[in-house]
Write a structure and sequence with these properties.
Distance between the termini: 49 Å
Radius of gyration: 24 Å
CATH class of the largest domain: Alpha Beta
Oligomer: single chain
Number of helices: 14
Largest sheet: 11 strands, mixed
CATH topology of the largest domain: Dihydrodipicolinate Reductase, domain 2
CATH architecture of the largest domain: 2-Layer Sandwich
Structural class: alpha/beta
CATH superfamily of the largest domain: Dihydrodipicolinate Reductase, domain 2
Strand content: 25-35%
Helix content: 25-40%
Length: about 450
């Protein structure tokens, strides 16, 4: 059978890994796909570097748009990244009748609905396993392996940079800035780490997971996004004393009442998790995604969420899927977002004020009688019940201390209103530190 010809747009970290793994495992991949998969053209602005990598085994061009003019190319692999050129390339590739494989989570989280609609109309495949959690096959698990399930929630450590930073802060007791500098030195963090440490990268991925899990359009603009830059080392220490660990989680949950779905939670933020939970023990730059389905119960997917060959593994898996499905009637292929395109649900993504979870609150207070009673009264007035309290004894000569409270589940808006009243107390000496808490049962 005629090989699938691939045009590779971008031969950086992931692109070079894709080239290497596909070359190394060509025979095995052919046996799985039922036909060969060959990268015939590579597009990269640094043509000299690209030629050094591929030699005379593929044509090298400077512009990715040249891939669209070659009628022999069946699939365009987009590894450029970003929203601009990548979007234009993907939409033009679809219009040209070429299948697309991409690792671009930002592009799909923001423009996925437009891209999938265009692909549906043109009858081509858009595959994106590498866009979420690198080499972990979570997209395929949700779209195919768990297709019998009504997904209840997903919680994922889906950014390796922030997980490395939080692991180091916990293990070594170091402040955020110092650990970030070390992460940059080791190559875990970019020179500009904003998308990672502010939670944007994880929110892109969580947006895609939410769409596949619940059959809703991609809606990145509705996600609540909070990074790790405001986390303090003392919060990590207090969490440990209370039996918890702090992870940056991407969480999406179905909110139900009386068997009816009221909305979908879509949020990324630092989260306290019981230390006994498996996901709480995922350390370093590793990723993990925990899924709860009504039939299967809990399943967890663990592995490398980034890197040259782990991500290339997902890219090539998508190419194999394209090779298998290219002759299949478009109406009988696995849908892009797991649900048929005309069956996506018009269920709202809930604003953060309507989210229900438990909370960790740290309050710096004057060491005076009655302070705890005043705070607990304000929480009770807001119908927020307390699960646990930890009060540090002030050091010798100090007249202030930290008061830590864990609440039971409550509505976020109610908690935020209570915090405003707590901060107005004369015995409260600083802003209240709030971290959400999930038991993940």
């Amino acid at each position: 059978m005629k090989p699938i010809n691939v045009g590779l747009a971008g031969i950086g970290t992931v692109g070079s890994g894709t080239w290497e793994v596909l070359s190394r495992n060509q025979d095995e991949i052919r046996r799985r796909a039922g036909r060969g998969i060959e990268i015939t053209t590579v597009a990269d602005l640094d043509t000299e570097r690209a030629r050094g990598l591929v030699g005379d085994r593929a044509k090298v061009v400077a512009s990715a748009f040249e891939l669209l003019d070659d009628p022999s190319i069946d699939v365009v692999v987009e590894l450029i990244g970003g929203y601009g050129v990548a979007k234009d390339l993907v939409l033009k590739a679809i219009a040209a009748g070429k299948h697309v494989v991409t690792a671009n989570k930002a592009l799909l989280a923001v423009h996925g609905s437009e891209i999938f609609a265009a692909a549906q109309q043109r009858g081509v495949i858009v595959a994106f396993e590498a866009a979420v959690a690198g080499g972990i096959p979570i997209i395929k698990a949700l779209r195919e392996g768990l297709t019998a399930n009504r997904v209840e929630w997903i919680a994922g450590i889906i950014n390796g940079t922030t997980n490395f930073i939080l692991s180091e802060m916990r293990d070594k007791g170091l402040p955020f800035d110092q650990v970030l500098a070390e992460a940059q030195r080791l190559g875990y963090a970019e020179a500009d780490p904003t998308f990672d440490i502010e939670g944007v990268d994880a929110a892109h991925k969580a947006t895609i997971l939410a769409s596949i899990a619940f059959g809703i359009p991609v809606q990145f603009d509705k996600a609540y996004v909070e990074g790790i830059t405001r986390l303090q080392s003392e919060d990590i220490r207090y969490a440990e004393k209370l039996g918890y660990r702090i992870k940056l989680l991407g969480i999406t949950r179905r909110r139900q009442e009386g068997g009816r779905t009221l909305g979908i939670e879509l949020r990324v933020h630092p989260t306290l998790i019981p230390a006994s939970r498996l996901i709480a023990n995922v350390e370093g730059a590793m990723n993990a995604v925990w899924v709860k389905g009504d039939a299967v119960g809990h399943t967890m997917y663990y592995g490398k969420g980034a890197g040259s060959e782990p991500t290339a593994s997902a890219v090539i898996a998508d190419l194999v899927d394209v090779a298998r499905a290219v002759t299949v009637d478009p109406d009988h292929r696995v849908p892009y977002l797991a649900f048929q395109s005309d069956a996506l649900a018009d269920v709202p993504v809930l604003p953060i004020d309507e989210v229900e979870t438990a909370y960790y609150l740290r309050v710096r207070v004057a060491d005076e009688p009655g302070v705890l009673a005043d705070i607990t009264r304000l929480l009770a007035d807001a119908r927020i019940s307390i699960d646990a309290v930890l009060q540090r004894e002030p050091a010798e000569g100090e007249n202030a201390t930290d008061l830590i409270l864990l609440t039971h589940r409550s509505i976020e808006g109610r908690v935020q209103s209570a915090i405003q009243r707590i901060e107005a107390l004369p015995t409260v000496l600083s802003s209240v530190s709030l971290i959400r808490l999930e038991d993940l049962n």
